[in-house]
Specification:
By secondary structure, the protein is α+β, with helices and mostly antiparallel strands. It has one domain (3-225). Helices cover 49% and strands 14% of the residues. It has helices at 3-24, 29-43, 52-61, 67-78, 82-90, 94-102, 150-153, 163-169, 176-183, 196-200, 227-239, 247-266; strands at residues 45-50, 110-116, 128-132, 143-146, 208-212, 220-226, 270-273. A seven-stranded mixed β-sheet has the order 4-5-2-1-3-6-7. It is globular, with a radius of gyration of 20 Å.
Length: 275
C-alpha cells in the first residue's frame, strides 16, 4: 500500500469536512478554526524530539537516521543482527512498529516526526525539539500526516491495519491544517492562541508525520529546548565550574557544551521555550 498516494486521494474529503465544520460550528468556532488552520498552514513544521546524545550524533554526522538505518549502523559496529538491535531498541513497541510498517511500500525509508507550530513538542521522546525547515515537506509527495500516533491508533489488537481509519484521516502536506483543525475542533475555543502549540503537540497527543527520503542537519530551521534546562546547564558549563555534580550530570553538561558548539558551527539557532 502506498501511504503517500492514500494521503493525496484523501485531500478533497479533508477539505470538505473542514468546510462543513465551519458551516455548522457554534458561535465563534468558525473564526477560531479558520485562524487555527491558517496558523498551521503558515507555520506548521515537522519536528522530532530527541535526547541530547541523539541530537549530538545528528549534528555531528549530518543525517537523521530512522530506526532501520540506526539499527543497521549499530549492527555493523557490534556484530549483532539488525532485527535483534531493533527489538532491543523498541522493546514492547517492536511488534507494533514492524507490523504497521509492513503494510506500506518502501517503509524502511520512513522517518517519523510530529506537526508543530511552537513549544517543546512531545518531550516524552526527548527534551530537545529539532524543527525542520519547510523544504523538507513542502512540494514533496512523500509526506503524510496522521491524526495521532500511528501504531497506537491504526493497529487492531491482533496487529491488523485499520485501513478505513487511516484512509479517513491521512493528509498530504497541503492539507495538514484541515486534519489538525478537524481533530481539535472541540478544543480550539477552550485554548487561547498562545496555548495552541501545546494543544497541537504534547507528550500525549500529536499529529504524526511520516516522511521518506533523507533529512539532514542542513535542513534544520532551529532547535528548541526549555529555558530552565538551558540556564541550569549553562550555569554548570560556564559559570559554576567547580559545582558538585554526579558523573551522569557532568556528562550531560559536557554534552550541552558540545551541542552549543555544533549549533554554532552549523549556524542553527537555539530557541529557548518557557516551560
Amino acid at each position: 500500500m502506498d501511504l503517500f498516494d492514500l494521503a493525496v486521494k484523501n485531500a478533497p474529503s479533508l477539505k470538505e469536512r473542514f468546510e462543513e465544520l465551519i458551516k455548522l460550528g457554534r458561535p465563534d468556532q468558525p473564526k477560531a478554526l479558520k485562524e487555527f488552520a491558517l496558523t498551521i498552514a503558515s507555520s506548521g513544521r515537522i519536528c522530532v524530539n530527541m535526547k541530547q546524545m541523539t541530537l549530538i550524533e545528528f549534528l555531528t554526522f549530518g543525517k537523521y537516521m530512522n530506526i532501520y538505518e540506526w539499527a543497521a549502523n549499530r549492527a555493523h559496529l557490534s556484530g549483532r543482527q539488525v532485527t535483534e538491535v531493533i527489538q532491543a531498541k523498541l522493546g514492547r513497541y517492536y511488534e507494533k512498529r514492524l507490523a504497521f510498517d509492513g503494510f506500506f511500500d518502501n517503509s524502511s525509508g520512513f522517518h517519523c516526526g510530529a506537526l508543530s507550530v511552537g513549544g517543546l513538542g512531545a518531550t516524552w521522546y526527548g527534551d530537545h525539539c529539532a524543527v525542520f525547515n519547510d523544504s523538507v515537506s513542502a512540494g514533496r509527495r512523500d509526506v503524510a500526516y496522521l491524526r495521532s500516533d500511528s501504531v497506537d491508533t491504526y493497529l487492531t489488537e491482533d496487529l491488523d491495519l485499520d485501513k478505513a481509519a487511516i484512509a479517513h484521516d491521512v493528509a498530504p502536506h497541503t492539507h495538514r491544517q484541515f486534519l489538525a483543525a478537524i481533530k481539535h475542533s472541540e478544543q480550539v475555543l477552550a485554548h487561547p492562541t498562545q496555548k495552541w502549540p501545546q494543544l497541537l503537540c504534547n507528550d500525549t497527543e500529536f499529529v504524526e508525520v511520516i516522511f521518506a527520503g533523507d533529512a539532514e542537519a542542513s535542513d534544520l530551521e532551529k532547535i528548541r529546548m526549555a529555558r530552565s534546562d538551558y540556564e541550569a546547564y549553562f550555569d554548570y558549563g560556564f559559570e559554576d565550574l567547580r559545582g558538585a555534580l554526579s558523573d551522569a550530570d557532568r556528562y550531560r553538561v559536557s554534552g550541552f557544551v558540545m551541542m552549543l558548539r555544533l549549533l554554532e558551527d552549523r549556524k542553527i539557532p537555539l530557541e529557548l521555550v518557557d516551560d
